[in-house]
Amino acid sequence: MIGQPLYILDTVDSTNNYAMEQVNTGQVTPGTAWFAMEQTAGKGQRGKQWSSPPGENLMLSIALQPGMLPLSRQFMLSVVISLSAHDWFSKYAGDETAIKWSNDLYWRDRKAGGILIENVLRGTTWQYAIMGIGVNLNQTTFPPHLTNPVSLKQITGKDWDPIELTRTLCACLEERMQLLHPAHYNTLLEEYKSKLFRFNKAGTYRMNGELFEGIIRDVLPDGKLCLEKDGEILELGFGEVEFVIVK
Q1: Domain BPL/LPL catalytic, which positions (predicted)?
Q2: CATH number of domain containing 158
């Protein structure tokens, strides 16, 4: 069961780092979760840092054991986790919640949270995946370099209990993980695309320093983004294109 047990940490450099250390001891059961009141060096995608005032937001890592998934289909884990986060956040923020490829959590055109998955391999065996998620819950002021953040409090006008919402997120993850089976891959991927930010809509992107207008047309089973540019379909991997938010 995801979130059982759930450990509450007062302060840690990164919940993903801490979870990885615990998994490497060989004494962690799948589904174990670690929530931090404070991170001193929170990790985002592609080496970015995730900063958060102490006690205001959700900072969580979970040890998952996706043994049923071959490494060639590991993007399906990202799909299921993204859908879980969408299920959970939309309960409170409403139907303007979206998934930004590959696995950020958006509300309208603003970023509410991010997901980072780090894998533990033993040879060719996918032993564990450490799923880290950070979501802005009660924060209302953000560093100036963040161009489009938003928190659940800003959306709803309410204060939220981070630990209570962590438990409801774990319940959403548990429900979705039951569907992580080859028979459901196509259905899950289609649902993921239906909730995707800018899917089949024109938007501004940056690639190799160039700004251009593009339209997301598809996401492939391996996670590549199919982006239409000037009538041509580009198949792009993670980190190859930047979404530009035009204010």
Answers
A1: 1-181
A2: 3.30.930.10
Residue 144 in tokens: 């100036």
Does any domain span residue 223?
A: yes
User: Where is 185: in which H helix or E strand?
Assistant: helix 185-194
What's the DSSP call for residue 151? -
Tokens (6 digits) for 72: 């060639």
Picking from 198, 223, 247, the residue whose alpha carbon sits closest to that of residue 69 is 223
Considering only CA atoms, which of 69, 63, 80 is closest in space to residue 28? 63
- In this structure, the answer to whether residues 149 and 45 fall within a common structural domain is yes
Q: What span, in angstroms and rounded, lies between the C-alpha atoms of 110 and 114? A: 12
- If you count them, how many residues does the chain have? 247
In a domain, 39, yes or no: yes
Residue with tokens 């982006």: 227
Kindly list the averaged pLDDT for each block of 10 residues, start to end, along the chain of length 247: 96 94 92 94 55 87 88 92 98 98 96 93 84 96 91 98 98 95 95 98 97 98 97 96 91
DSSP 96: T
113 and 171 share one domain: yes
Which residue reads 């949270």 in tokens? 113
